[in-house]
Amino acid sequence: MFKDIEHLIRLAVVMLIALIVFIVVRAHVVPRSFGQYGHYRGAALGEIASRPVALAGHEACETCHSDVADLKKQGKHVVVACEACHGAAANHADDPGSIKPAKLDTAILCARCHEANSAKPRGFPQVVTADHANGVACDTCHQPHRPKIDLQPETKGTKK
Amino acid sequence: MKITRRHLLVLMPAAAVAWKFVLAGTPEASPNYQLTEHWWAMLMDLTKCIGCGSCVRACAQENDVPDGYYRTWVERYHVTDWKIERPQVESPDGAKQGFPANELSDGKNFFVPKLCNHCADSPCTQVCPVGATFISPDGVVLVDKNYCLGCRYCVQACPYGCRFINPKTMTAEKCTLCYHRITKGLTTACCEACPTGTRQLADLKNPKDPIHEFLKTHSVQILKPHMATGAKVFYNGMDGSVR
Fold first, then answer.
1. Which position among A109, A156, B31, B147 has the lowest Cβ density within 10 Å, counted as fewest Cβ atoms?
2. Domain ranges of chain A
């Protein structure tokens, strides 16, 4: 009955070899972490998470620039993070000696937030910069970190 | 043919080597961050947005987004009474430089910042033929740029237009919800730079997150709810004309 068993064994060996080849090739081709969390490369999570940070965050700035932070706390710009104005500065925070944030042009900077626009919420302080500043740089009158202008600075000064 | 000891001696090590590859794949260690303890989302309070584009600039700097492409952008809606179903939407350079003083001041005007909605049932991940885009266990839709073919299926599948092909790498790119920041305990670049608190990163699995109180007391909406994407960017004060 099993006189032709040799054929079956040969077939079995061929299939075994094919299986082994499949397993080896698959192991080489499919990344190690594929399927770790789902149908994707689990290691991608770590790779994406390891990207360096460009914005240091205002807490980092405030540790060194406590004078600016204190000034900013006195006015409404307390809610505006340093890097919203100064741009990404993590490389400056890491190496303040050699890398400085670029100088800012207040005519562009302040207008982005404060240029009058009917789509802005009503309560937000806005000006038509062309009429309001007349080409004068905003920081000649406003201190950028504490922008409120006390309307009678002279009388205040003389009262003391 | 007979299977001899010799055959076995050849086959067994081969099988053993193969087995080693099958069993390999130790989990990537991510220190101090538990994937299962977070479920990220974002709150967008449109009543506060001033359209300054700080988020767009911060995103571009943080993520090296090429010029002319946007992972987040701000739209300005202009809706007039008699054309309420056809709002006029503009977003010059994605609002990277904010919005110029405008002439369209009649009717109703407001800003709508947009970004990937990090959908819980995202259409974009479902169409990927190779498993290069996926929803992470903490609820962020990501692209594995080393695995992406650049076939653009996902770009077409996203109903919100949040994906693009990076012209340098020719792979799909999108908002990562600053995955490299939120896994380090920082907020996203856009939320960091937002001056008005319009954008707030939210962790739905954190019971102490202020979003829970906000969601309880406000009527928030998501974009295109009829598409059942499970979008996780919640808009407060959103007008019905927003697409």
1. B31
2. 5-50, 53-102, 103-152
CB-CB neighbors (< 8 A) of A51 in chain B: 63, 179-180
How far does A1 lie from chain B, in Å, by closest CA? 18
Is A40 in Cβ contact with B144 (below 8 Å)? yes
CATH numbers and ranges of domains, chain B:
5-236 (3.30.70.20)
B209 touches chain A (CB under 8 A): no
Per-residue pLDDT tens over the stretch A76-106: 999 999 999 999 999 999 999 999 999 999 9
DSSP E strands in B51-94: the ranges are 72-79, 88-90
What ipTM was reported for this prediction?
A: 0.83
Among residues B130, B172, B178, B54, the alpha carbon closest in space to that of A35 is found at B130
Give, in order, the Cα–Cα distances in Å from B64 to each of A122, B108, B175, B194: 34, 35, 11, 18
Residues of A in contact with B141 (CB under 8 A): none
Whether B138 and B206 have beta carbons less than 8 Å apart is answered as no
The pTM of the full predicted model, rounded to 2 decimals, is 0.88
Across the interface, do A121 and B48 touch by the CB < 8 Å criterion?
Answer: yes
Within 8 A by CB and 6+ apart from B141, the residues are: B116, B118, B119, B122, B124, B125, B133, B134, B135, B174
Answer whether A54 sits within 8 Å of B28, measured CB to CB: no
A55 and B193 within 8 Å at the Cβ level: the answer is yes
